[in-house]
Amino acid sequence: GRTALHHAAIRNHVSITQSLISVPKIHLNIPDNRNWTPITYSAALGHTTLFSTLLAAFPPSQITTILNTKDNQGRTTLSWAAGQGNSDVVKLLLAIPGIDVNATDGDNWTPLTYAVAHGHTETVKALL
């Protein structure tokens, strides 16, 4: 199931997200049934400000692992952002050391493959 933080991320409620992440010991990275976390939803849906808000809430030592984690389809956060043409989020992700730009899913598709297949020119340029 989804947490309150999932729903805030899906609906792009930045102020609610800020309130939730300020709660001591809140779990920021709980996956739902698809193995999507709130940060995955924010990236896939192009909620750039909310994505940045969540990103800043994680300890730096955990960010790469969190973002390179694959969902039930074998896709990473970058793969979803690229496939949806969310170039601003893609650029933020590419600036993170250790982000796996060549991660493949169950169909052997990379983030670049998704961006090309869906015709997202700006995202393709960012990934090249």
TrEMBL record:
ANK repeat windows: 1-22, 73-106, 107-128
One family name in Pfam for this protein: Ank_2
PROSITE patterns per UniProt: ANK_REP_REGION, ANK_REPEAT
SMART domains xrefs: ANK
Keyword tags: ANK repeat, Repeat
Protein name: Ankyrin repeat-containing domain protein
